[in-house]
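Submission sheet (multi-component)
Chains listed below:
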Amino acid sequence: MSKTGTIGDSVFRTILIIFAATIIVIVVAMIAMMVQNSLPTIREFGLGFLTGRRWQPASDIFGALPFIYGTIVSSVIALVLAVPLSLGIAIFLVEQAPQKIARPIAFMVELLAAIPSVVYGLWGIFVLAPFIRSYLGPVLQSYLGWLPLFQGRLTGIGMLTGGMIMALMVTPIVTAVVRDVLEAVSTTQREAALALGATKWETTTIVLGNAASGIAGAVVLGLGRALGETMAVTMVIGNSPQISSSLFEPAYTIASVLAANFAEATDKLYLSALIEMGLVLFLVTFIVNAFAKLLVIRVARRSGAH
Amino acid sequence: MGSKIRIKNMDFFYGSNQALFDISLEIPDRQVMAFIGPSGCGKSTFLRTLNRMNDTIPIARLTGTVEIDGKDIYAPKTDVVALRRKVGMVFQKSNPFPKSIYENVAYGIRINRMHKDRADLDQRVEKAIRDAALWDEVKDRLNTSAFGLSGGQQQRLCIARALAVQPEVVLMDEPASALDPIATQKIEELVVELKKSYTIAIVTHNMQQAARVSDRTAFFMLGKLIEVNPTEKMFTNPDEKLTEDYITGRFG
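Outcome: structure written.
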């Protein structure tokens, strides 16, 4: 009996090891494939690929800078809008709201995360873009129009719309992580502050102090999500490879250009250029996510130690 | 000696569970009153009614009155923030903030805007740390993290933090239960020293500790106050059979 048992266990173990190893194989295979397929542009342009401002596939000119710029700026817009909103929601849910209210709101936030990207995109085209064109844009231009950020023509489709859609998509994730981090802060910290005559607000600042690195982690996690967001952004950002100071102008992100042009990239160099951008995006989001996870783990470990 | 705190006919509920039954009790000014009793007897719950810390539990409910200096702290207009400044608390597990030693003690002074300037703040922080018998151990590293201190030092830091806002009453919820004998002894000496200036209510499951530090002792069981007497009498000749059984270790 013990013999068959031993064989069974080792078979089971081997199978599990194979399953676990597939993850590593997949990651390595993806990197290898991307590096190999982007060799033509790496050879042709070197680092100039990353700093090139012109993107003219027809004449074999490939500069990735407009896409890198578009990705970064739209992500920054997303975070600037989403982080305060998420912090506010999470603080309300953990520190203020009674259970009866907190639960349904937390549930709705999670639902928001489950809406497919393409639905956000549609909503962006039919609701958000007209809203920016007719209401938000004119208001911004009349009050802040002296800033280069808010000059130019208003079509409703462009960098700002892309960033705002992304903000909506990032908010549920950041909220959920911040909520977990705040909940992990020990009750004894809140009581210590209250016992000293701290107000609700002062107690909240103590909680936030405890959670600081976890909140930073949540923000970086949101950044990772924003950098890689594709479908919704492609639908509303305008897909024009230009670097403009105006947030109303159309732009382009790395993820969008990959999604929109893969089918027509039959030329070897064109394909290689797209894949190299994919590689850049992959590495950046990989690093950003790893960094975020580290920050979140640190808070959990510290509050576990107390 | 006058009473600092006067509790009359207090009932306390968690939802539909009654945790304290008809407690009436007086805590004298500038003395140490110890609360003993088996786990779950309500002594910690009782302590937390005195600075309304139980307010943080939504289902908690209290009837009866708790008067401090003759004012009912459960009256509707009570300023709970001011109450908690006047009635400080030290918890079972030391809970310093993730700040420096100095900033931990300065926190309460800052949020209550008690200091005139930086020098005044320094002075108040030093006095509080001295009063908590911690100064010599930390004076050279005030700006290092409070988490670098030992468990006993952290607990004395928490006492310093509580003293810094100049409370009149200090509530201590098993302040030495997580500490080794030497650190415990330091806390006990400190408690005896502090009663010169403060009214102290201390919950402990350690009967010898109650005997060593307190002037009066109250014995709780199953949410009821069984007996209150001067500590010496309580431990030599208690009025109640139940108290004697508990003190002599027949249950607990």
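Remark: Chain B touches chain A at residues 51, 53, 56, 58, 81-82, 84-85, 88-89, 91, 93, 95-99, 107-108, 111-112, 158, 161-162, 165 (CB under 8 Å).
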